[in-house]
Fold these 4 entries.
Entry 1:
Amino acid sequence: MLNSKLRQLLDSFSTTRASSARRRKAWGPLAALDRPAEVLEQRTLLTAVALPYLVFSTQPSNIVAGHDLYFRAEVMINVKTNQGTVTEVDTAFNGTCSFTPIGPGTFDTPYDFTGTQGPNAPFSSVTLPVVDGFVGDHHKATSIDTAGNYEIQAVATSSTPGVSVLPVNSSTFTVTPFSATDRLVFIKAPSEAAVDAPISATVAVEDQFGNIDTSVNNVPVTLLAIPGNGSTSEIKNGEATFNDAVFVAAGPDTLLAVASPPTGGSLAATDVVEVFGSNGGAS
């Protein structure tokens, strides 16, 4: 009789279990700290070691200004099993993740972006969905126009109350000038000058976004004061300075700078200076 009752009792319990993925999605806010035993890919899950945390699964790499910036993030969890602690994507995590650049500039749409915003439209951050621990894709929609060194800060927000994830920063990456669009510009020049008085002026090689291309070196450049003298200098780290340009006639006169890169062709820049006669007035 006793054996019969024991058999009936045992038969009353179901021996089937839900799959790991489905049960993980049913976890409540405190489940990250105290989870029941279950089978996970042939391993017995005992408990979680810590709360979910965010990682850059693909770190941002160096880019040319205005070009696509690619990176990916995932929400991870450390779980303790009968085979040791295992790190894996937390498929129970759903919500959003925002990314913000830390550096001299903001995000921009790429130079060839065809969306409604058009190219080079600035925005401070991008927010993407997190589905089953994976952050949505933003590829070909995010860039940075301003050259310099950057990190990206990621902040994940769970749709489940009580589950929090600490912010994380990416590794450092560099944005370099878009040298294919280099041009010569005046970055320092007087608005007024006197006849026969030397003036100073500085030119720089900049890309289309205003980044000085410091990779340009040992390039001869000529400055012409029209009407006046000619002066020569050499571009170093993207810049060249002149201190001996002289105009010989009053009026709205022209400064013309011409550089000859070793790759061929020429770069030119002009500026207008109001030149006064020796009596202090234009003649």
Entry 2:
Amino acid sequence: MNLPEKDTYSKHRYQINIVECAYEVVQRMKAVKKRPKNQISVEEYAFRLREAINAYKRSIDFDPSASEVSRKQVCVISPTHPAFDFWLALHLSIEEADEIPMLLDAYNDDEFGHVENFLGHVQYLVIKIMKSNKLYDFKEQKNAVIDWVREQNEKQKDQKKIKEPQTTINIEQLNFIKNVTSIDVHILNQLTLMLQQFNFEQFNKFVNIYQESTNEEPEEDEVENDVQSSIKEPNTDRIPLTLEYSQVMDYFMQLTKHKNNGHIKKKDIENLVKANFEFRDMKSSGKKKLLDVDIEKQILNQFIYTFFNEHDPSYYRNKAKVYCQFMIDNFLLFQHDNLTTLRKNFSRKSSVHYPFSK
């Protein structure tokens, strides 16, 4: 019995899968031991590559419901795509120098699609992008590209001069070294943790290459599965904040001032804050411990919700679920609560007198 052959993902040695290319670029950046102080961080560059990949996906109407093979295949960028010069520049910086002439010959000979004035693109755009993105040492690769351009120009010296191609891409915007972009602290913290133990699967997940991100509210059971898969016992995840440590301490110290809570000391609140929140300018520490707060459960719920809603301006997917998990992890009153049920009632105000300031 002959079984039908399964579709497999494949590409030519010289074709460029932009996800694989981005991953290798970040790996090369990580390997640099001493980076110039004014150079972009690995985390920020990885973030920008993710945004560039998502922009590419939007431009080709990426179909998240297609087969896995198809989704991988469309990430092999065509030389006719407007962003090809940028990805070719990055790919050339990680290619073996002795392979570069053959790679450029293949594209120049239209093996992967016709490009008008390919030599002009390499001479005027690709080399400029390579020089703008000095992420690690690729002098040998850059020289190989320049030598290839000179050789091609020598071959065509009897023809009309190679002209600079027309492009809709602002090359200065591709200078990732000089540009300054503010990254959401949650994404930056994710990246920092991800890069500590970096592999292609983690990078692929970060890029969301196999599914399209959306701003729509997911189904409740989908959110539940997503949160439960990311929050496991023991839960060591911390909530990223743009607030100062002192601001968070001031808010949660209110618990020590409530009647019947004299047993809660400053050191308990310090542990609560340091073990559960991540700050830009200080290292998190400690382990999560259950606090026995002597107040009505609905009041404690509103106390946490008020901080979530009025004090923490960060936005990210499942933020409310993360805070509900925070309640389960840190307060005896919520220790045995169901995460989904807690989320549904999270914004409900207390029916009794609320004793805390907002």
Entry 3:
Amino acid sequence: MTQKKFFMALLVSMAITLALWFLPDAITTYILDIRGVSSFLAADPTVGQINKPNFSGKFGGFLDPFSTFVSIGPLGERRSSEGNCKNVPYFLFMGDSITAGFEVNDEETFVSKININCKTTRIVGANFGVLGYDTHEVIANYTRISRSIKHDAVLYLITDTDLWENTQLFPYVNIAKRFGRVFFGTYYLPTISNLERAYLNFRIFASDHFYATSTAIKLLERWYAGRSQVAHTYTTIPADQAETLVKLVKILSAAVKGHGTLYIAASPCVTTALCAGPDIERLLQNSNQSGEFVVLPLATELESKFNRGEINKKDMRFYNDVHLSKYGHHVLAEELTRLFATSPGDTKRNY
């Protein structure tokens, strides 16, 4: 076989192999109507990324531990079930992917469960959780929506990752490269090369059209990140992270003042790794001498219930994903309802 024929045979074999991979992947993705993460986000120069208004699609698939239907409202809120109650306080629930709850269906998030059971919970609300958010972006997003939607109170659900992210200009580089980033009230957009832009565009295209391929790429990216980054587990909160969190929470508290009460809680620890949830709540409680906001001991009390065996923390998450399962959202809704009922916050209607 001549060298030319050898290379032609090699090219044909490669083309057939790629076609056998990509064609079934594309057909499967189309039939199942699976959407990539980027499809659910839109750029906003005052925040960075927000949930794409008036968008809906399937999140996750057969290679993930979940496959759900996610729909977004006109202000970028995760659509929630509506409660049939009037003259009860209206909450804005703010946070990151734990709050957004894309891993369960619209009616299964803790916000939907609170709304559905409003005759018991005595509150209703809207879910403004967004994937990848930290406290900087929660503040910016609240500023964006606060005058557009009447509300009586805000709950900010903090997760461990917020601590580190709050101190980094670009904690999620790929997200920042596409949408930009708000940091202490200033919008930043990193300069990227043509090669980086081409890769980013390819990732977005792959996530929307090739589900299996996109999943394989995500695994490779996570593997690389795991080799190059230190895992964030906590015995104590580093001083710079603690100081930054307190500073940002007070900025958020000042923004909420005049609209109603700011409640803050930490997401419960549902993994075997060390978590900072109870420490976050104690830190904020100790820094709240003037009573600017209300700290709900959500993570602290759930940790006690885990230790007593009343709740199995493993049941609150997916087997290979740290996000809350349907049961996890159910527990969160019940715990928040109990804590709101006994908290000192003023949730009277302001309109």
Entry 4:
Amino acid sequence: MNSIKVLTVMTFALSIMTVLGQNRLKGGNYFLLLKDKEKISLNTYENNKIKEKGTFTISEKSIFTTDQKERVAILDTAKNLITLYDFQTSKEIRLSIPYDIKPKCILLNDDDLFIGGKMGKEILVQYHIQSEKWYELEIPTQVIFGGKAIDDLVVNDSLLIAIDNVVMPKYILFYRLNTTEKLAFSHFKLLKSNGTWEHIFQGRITSDYLGLRSSTFWSVGSAQHITIYKNLDLTECFAISVSNGSRKNETNEYNDFLIVGNKVVIANKENGLGLFEIKKSYFEPIKNYVTSYSPINNFKPIKTLEFRHVVINDSKISYEKYKNKNIIKLTQIPNTKKIILTIENNNIRHEIIEI
């Protein structure tokens, strides 16, 4: 961990964990932090210090995000009500979602608010702020069936990227970004699988990589995974994985992760802060011959070649232990390589490190 430098420590009252949207937004300097169990703070980073610009009320049922420039959105998932704050003009708008959706994630990008969720009738909707219009975004018939959900949203320069969840097979859905109207569906891509009953929690995106945090389950145990895709073709990837021997003892798990340059930064509930370097060789697939038997061939063995992605054991990650403390959130300060660790003990502490 000698490439990480601790810069600043800030302490607040004890907080419960809620959801922040973070997603390769450009040009903004603002970011959100958990302050206590009823508040989040809007901040900038000035003169090597976190500068609080305002606070907003939340609850245990809140999910929230910022466009990093002028707006904060807080969604009460119990009531499907949104409070949209323009913190540059102090204007506040309250919205009721006019769709049957069970929200799981939100994203603010320029003049749009996007909401992804579990099945009611809709799982991905858009609100255009300037025109005050709602839209239900197209979900291809090939991927829409019972149990599907959109669990996270990220953007790149021209696309909204929706991360599919829960039921196999899994997909990434792509929509063409614009600033004036309903987003048009572009295409979808099939995701690699890390095992049975895979549940995706979170996506991270940079100019080079797309990362997904997920878990898999089987009869007596579970595992946590961070899968790194080389680009949006989704053909080259590797996975970092950690297993738990029993579902009843799932302390060795990933709370959060970030991709900064060619490094993966990991918040592990048991092991603390992890740092892992991405290498080109990890994207080279493993060739594996599989033997099958078919009555068509009189049950003679048939060998076929399959390609599997590289799986890297969590033991190869360089960890710094935070004794009796749990790093529950990683927040990258916009336009820097500095990361804020949100650490839970008897209170909430924010520690700034530099990669």
